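Form 7-S
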Amino acid sequence: MCWLLSGCGTMRADGGATSTREPSTAESPISWTLAAPMAVNGVSVAADDRTLQLDVQVPAGTNCTRGLKAAVDTVENGVIYVKVIFESSSMDRRSGCTHDERALTSVRLPVSVVGHRVMVNSSDVFTLSGATRPALRKCGKLGCDPAPTGCTSASYQQAMLTADTPQHTYWDDLGCDGHWLVLELSTRMGPACGDVSSGCTESALTTRWSFRAAPDGWHALGTSDAAGCAGVLRMSPAFPEALCRHLPALKR
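Output:
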């Protein structure tokens, strides 16, 4: 009788035993997969305006990364699309590639970078405009040339991004003095109605947001449904009452 799996075997007539363990097979080789950098640290341009050097993060260690290269996908509408790829063994736990490091790769452009933006792996965007050579300037989530913070439609669009609102959200300006802002942001809910005569009723979820201007754009203070200034003054006592004292309570 076998009491432990490791002790199992087949008894012979002479009282001996033979093992039933399967012969071990050789361990499969570590696999390599196509990958993209975890981050793009920066892009710089050579004096010819046609050669870019890209500083990226890749898996670190012996036999963790190979074949790092950059290539131009296409040039469209003033944007140079660059793809950076490499092969890595880091997806295989046996590789031991648990850290990352900086690496450099270069690409020759078919056109001058002057007057173009560079998008790397359909994510990070860089521009020479307003940059200090040789480095290109990395654009933010508001674009490469965001509108100045103020009481304008373009600036309100930036405030909506700061509030992380869903797509198809629309705004109503309740008060703005260039330094402080109150917006009601409404997101359509329920069915998408075409012809109102069909009996379909549209609805929207409305939230009242307050913002403070900063050098990099509007900063969201928070939300409040209360009438007047009580809610916003709890978030920022410096908020001007002239922009909030007239506000009614937000109906739900």
